[in-house]
């Protein structure tokens, strides 16, 4: 069955960097785009990044553009999110999700917590 | 891109029906039929419930249904069950390869 497992979360100071990873299994990884979505405390879900199935195109929310970089490694069935210049407002649980039908998120991981605090 | 507007809470008794609204603009909900809904039990992975406004993925009970009118989409949960108690989020394509979610609605089964 489809499994998505995020890792790499933790506590980091403002301005520092963190790299999240998501290990995918149970489906032909190269056939699917992948997404990052976050859930900040007391807020709703927020779309973060969309990575095409071949990694040729990556799109970002305005709130993270220029600071976050998405990537994927099809040899390892893994997608990553490099987060630089972190801010307190980036504190959230980060989920990776599989793209389906170009506009939907059909399978999600359990999420990983990122806390940005001094 | 601004978040879609959902009521913070909704409730109903077992067996009843509840409808959750999701209001956007002509640039997202009103402009595309790419509206979806997700169920989230805190601490677990969100679950895909509805796509393309009113279609259900395989395995989702027909107690869950979706609709849209203008800039507002809705999710109806019929025959409420205890396990339906969760947070529900709507999502819409917003153009230019961007997606927007709602603020979430906490559904309580009384």
Q: Biggest interface and its residues per chain?
A: A-B, 27 and 27 residues
Unreliably modeled segments of chain A: none
Q: Report how far apart the termini of chain B are.
A: 35 Å
> In terms of quaternary structure, what is this?
heterodimer
Radius of gyration of chain B: 13 Å
Tell me the structural class of chain B.
mainly beta
The pLDDT mean of chain A sits at 97
Report on the biggest sheet of chain A: 7 strands, mixed
The count of β-strands of chain B is 9
Q: Describe it for me?
A:
The complex is a heterodimer of chains A (118) and B (110). Chain A is mainly beta. Chain A has no helices and eleven strands. In chain A, the strands form two sheets. In chain A, strands 2, 4, 5, 6, 9, 10 and 11 form a seven-stranded mixed β-sheet that branches. In chain A, a hairpin with a 6-residue loop joins strand 5 and strand 6 (58-60). By secondary structure, chain B is an all-beta fold. Chain B is 0% helix and 44% strand. The A-B interface holds A 4, 35, 37, 43-47, 50, 57, 59, 61-62, 95, 97, 100-111 and B 1, 3, 6, 32, 34, 36, 38, 43-48, 51-52, 57, 89, 91, 93, 97-104.
Short description:
The complex is a heterodimer of chains A (118) and B (110). Chain A is mostly beta strands and 118 residues long.
Keyphrases for this structure?
heterodimer; A: 118 residues; mainly beta; seven-stranded mixed β-sheet; four-stranded antiparallel β-sheet; B: 110 residues; six-stranded mixed β-sheet; three-stranded antiparallel β-sheet; 9 strands
């Amino acid at each position: 069955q489809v499994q998505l497992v995020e890792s790499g979360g933790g506590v980091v100071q403002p301005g520092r960097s963190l790299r999240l990873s998501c290990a995918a299994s149970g489906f032909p990884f190269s056939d699917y785009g992948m997404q990052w979505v976050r859930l900040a405390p007391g807020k709703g879900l927020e779309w973060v990044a969309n990575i095409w199935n071949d990694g040729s195109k990556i799109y970002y929310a305005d709130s993270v553009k220029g600071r976050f970089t998405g990537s994927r490694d099809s040899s390892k069935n893994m997608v990553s999110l490099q987060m630089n210049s972190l801010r307190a407002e980036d504190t959230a649980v980060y989920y990776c999700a599989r793209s389906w039908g170009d506009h939907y998120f059909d399978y999600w991981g359990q999420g990983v917590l990122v806390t940005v605090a001094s | 891109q601004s978040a879609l507007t959902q009521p913070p809470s909704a409730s109903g008794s077992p067996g009843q029906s509840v409808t959750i609204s999701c209001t956007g603009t002509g640039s997202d909900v009103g402009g595309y039929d790419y509206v979806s809904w997700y169920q989230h039990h805190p601490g677990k992975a969100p679950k895909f419930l509805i796509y393309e406004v009113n279609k259900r993925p395989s395995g989702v009970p027909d107690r869950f249904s979706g609709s849209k009118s203008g800039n507002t989409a809705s999710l109806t949960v019929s025959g409420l069950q205890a396990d339906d108690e969760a947070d529900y989020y709507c999502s819409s394509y917003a153009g230019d390869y961007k997606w927007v979610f709602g603020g979430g609605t906490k559904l309580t089964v009384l």
